[in-house]
Amino acid sequence: MDTLLLAIKIVITLLVAILFVQNIVLVEVRFLAWGTRMPLALLLLVIYVLGMVSGKALFTFIRRLRSNRKHSSRY
């Protein structure tokens, strides 16, 4: 089982590396008055990380709301 998980991790890492190497072309990113040029692979990585952070924050917020609701209904 450990060998299978290691093989899956290696395959995923290789796929991500291939994605990164094949998407080095520069793209222009514009947001409101701000603009920059960056490699597409870097843009994908930034968007992915921002999605992880915002998703974690959203789930933490929802968990706190549920926890507060449970505690307030006890009293």
Automatic annotation (TrEMBL):
<feature type="transmembrane region" description="Helical">
    <location>
        <begin position="40"/>
        <end position="62"/>
    </location>
</feature>
<feature type="transmembrane region" description="Helical">
    <location>
        <begin position="12"/>
        <end position="34"/>
    </location>
</feature>
<keyword id="KW-0812">Transmembrane</keyword>
<dbReference type="InterPro" id="IPR010445">
    <property type="entry name" value="LapA_dom"/>
</dbReference>
<protein>
    <submittedName>
        <fullName>LapA family protein</fullName>
    </submittedName>
</protein>
<keyword id="KW-1003">Cell membrane</keyword>
<feature type="domain" description="Lipopolysaccharide assembly protein A">
    <location>
        <begin position="22"/>
        <end position="71"/>
    </location>
</feature>
<keyword id="KW-1133">Transmembrane helix</keyword>
<dbReference type="Pfam" id="PF06305">
    <property type="entry name" value="LapA_dom"/>
</dbReference>
<keyword id="KW-0472">Membrane</keyword>
<dbReference type="GO" id="GO:0005886">
    <property type="term" value="C:plasma membrane"/>
</dbReference>
